[in-house]
Predict the structure.
Amino acid sequence: MAALPMAPSPSGFAALQYLCDMRHGALGARLTAVFNAPPLRPRELQHEVALVTGGTGGIGLATAQALCAAGAEVHVTGRNEERGQAAARSAPPDSTGSIKFHKLDMSTPAAARQLDTIMQRELGSRHLDILVQNLACMPDRYELVGSGGDGGAVHERSLSTNLLAFYECGTRLHARMASGGRSISVVSAGLHPHRLSVPALRALDEDKDGFDPVHAYCTTHRARAHLTRVWATQHPHLRFASVHPGWAVTDGLSNAQAMAGWFQVLKRTLRTAAQGADTIAWLVSKDAKVASGGYYWDRRERSLDLPLAGTKTSDSDVAAVFEYVSATCRAE
């Protein structure tokens, strides 16, 4: 029997630096609000079309509302009809924008292709101006998703949702974006302690007994940030960024079994969803000075690698991960 791929151990020093930095909580959000103007001006996004995946609750909904308040026509995806219709009715008072809900389970590349078809119909002859890939999950246990019953591929849920569907969605929708469009990848700063490699990603699919929800979440988010940088080189007419929204209170966080202890200890220090959406909204503004492909939190570009962490990813590893993800999606 062939040996299972081994995922690299996280950097303990990087984890210590990350977990002790309380700027990721409400403190950082308050400092950002004190020293900066609101992220978007009224009507700044008038006549622009935006898409926010996972936009029916938490940071995704707060982002949709912020874009709508600035005048955008915002499309959101989600699995729950009731939450989706509530999101569509939640446009801020006096807003000139709108929010439209599309019921879709975005856990597979096939769903991303379906979303592309939906947006083609919605856009008509127009272009997409803003893409916010917010959707991600932290499953409580190892679980496969996909069309295995029809002979199609199946993958571990966090790999499929957080990375494969993410890649397929971006690859297809970037082709529908206007010059100057903004593509924002929402990630977790939990990526900092984790090294990235193809074996680390393959292990998510193949090592059922060794499955770690936190490692799966953080590793796929690190891959999202690196894929965003690759996209920035491929599409110089668009603006790309990955963004850590900070430690914010969301249903996903409060319900994640693997994070229950952490949440109980720190819940009084966490951000609101609206505070988590601040830098996302700022990154799509016309005034933001953004290095395309950069990684941001609290309106500042940051390094993916903390000092002395030993987590730096080589160019060849990034290229290998990009090819692995794209080849896996092509095989669907």
